[in-house]
Amino acid sequence: MTHTVTRDAIARFDLANPPAGFTDDPFPFYDALLAYAPVLPQPDGSVLLSRHADLDRIYRDTTLYSSDKKAAFGPKFGVDSPLFEHHTTSLVFSDPPLHTRVRKIMTSALTPRAIARMEPGLVQTVDYLLDAMASKEQVDLIEDFASTIPIQIIGNLLDVPMDERGPLRDWSLSILGALEPTLTPAQLAEGQDAVTQFKTYLEDLVRRRRTTPGDIETDVLTRLIKGDGADGQLSEIELLQNCIFILNAGHETTTNLIGNSLALLNDHSDQKQRLLDQPDLINPCIEEVLRFRSPNQMGNRETTAEIEIDGLTIPTGTNLHLCMGAANRDPAVFDQPTHFDISRKPNRHLAFAGGPHVCVGLTLARLEGRIALSRFLARFPDYHIMEGRQPGGRIRFRGYASLPATL
Q1: What angle do CA 181, 183, 186 make, to 5 degrees?
Q2: Integer distance in angstroms from the first to the last C-alpha of the chain?
Q3: Of the candidates 86, 112, 109, 33, the residue with the CA atom closest to the CA atom of residue 244
Q4: Separation between Cα atoms, residue 22 and residue 351, nearest integer Å
Q5: Which has more pLDDT, 385 or 221?
Q6: Distances in Å between the alpha carbon of 367 and those of 125, 221, 263, 349, 362?
Q7: Is residue 346 reached through a cis peptide bond, with omega within 30 degrees of 0 on the bond before it?
Q8: How confident is the model at residue 60 (pLDDT cuts 50, 70, 90)?
Q9: Mean of the pLDDT values across residues 25-41?
């Protein structure tokens, strides 16, 4: 669907009550935001920002812009709720010193050497799924492929027993779904219940791991339990909630990266043929998918002092919506930003945010995307996505719930 959004229409844009068509196809709205209203006050007092330069600057500045969401999430989730405890303790929504401590431990477990050791297991997982799909007349590229890969990889990272991984995906979807700008009572209750169930499961897993520790070089859970000698150990709540965060952060976004890659190449047959002819384009292809259909479309920061952007005075404590999906189409940074080009260079996208909060798992996500896409295309170069694809229906996260296909 392609349409033009007028200056008047975008001036009235309300992220909490988005206009018809926005969830399915936000990109014309993004283009209008960039053209007419890159700094847009919202009815609830928040501000929507879409320019690449503004987002890039804000991500790098942890003095004027805080990641702590206690003020925003208290009214949304309830200050004593499971969702509030999770989303205000996890790495992404915390400031130093907690952020520094947790990130240091996670980074030490995700070194280039550690990630390189994951590659054989990743290849094995992908090839197993490709074998399983080969005999089917019709497959779902999300259910049968894209969503299964990150669950297995993160399950391996935390050494979750294979027969206990069944509920992980649904828990993750429910918890991340609670980050949407507006929630129904049912979605809120589902998210609260998912945190409770996930936390209960992890309490048992942590007890077992304390009794029988894993290899600290390969088992992230054992590393998180032991902590870092210089910075001490995580509290029990910090430990449990950041285990949930690892699964959530690595699951839906990577599922979306793989699914979006397959959908975009299906829809841009010329680019698909280029990749088949030149497999060494796989790395820039993954970067272009990250830019063109960012798995995570929105971030947030809160101002810690009064600031001014484009003549707009923004008070202390204002919630800023950082629209990565729009910033990655900013014509001030990207030549022909609405064109999908798998050889695009340079490609300074913000799909992984930036600054101290740049995605801690970005190297692993890129590896998963690269292995999944390249091995899929080598096996099924003539795949075709059929009628009936189902979008994910999210504003913050962009992907598909279902991609029916023939191989």
Answers
A1: 160
A2: 26
A3: 86
A4: 20
A5: 385
A6: 13, 21, 19, 17, 9
A7: yes
A8: very high
A9: 97
196: CB partners within 8 A, 6+ apart: 82
Query: pTM of the full predicted structure?
Result: 0.92
**With contact defined as beta carbons under 8 Å apart, do 190 and 170 qualify?**
no
Q: How far apart are CA 91 and CA 86, in angstroms?
A: 10
* 282 vs 254: CA distance, rounded Å: 16
Distance of CA 11 to the CA centre of its chain: 28
Q: Taking residues 272-278, report their average pLDDT.
A: 98
Q: What angle do CA 130, 135, 139 make, to 5 degrees?
A: 70
Quick one: angle between helices 185-211 and 70-77, nearest 10?
A: 110
Give the C-alpha separation, 64 to 356, whole Å. 14
Q: Is the pLDDT of residue 73 over 60?
A: yes
Q: CA distances (Å), 141 to each of 133, 155, 253, in order?
A: 9, 20, 15
Alpha-carbon Rg for the chain, nearest whole angstrom, is: 21
CA distance 177 to 256: 14
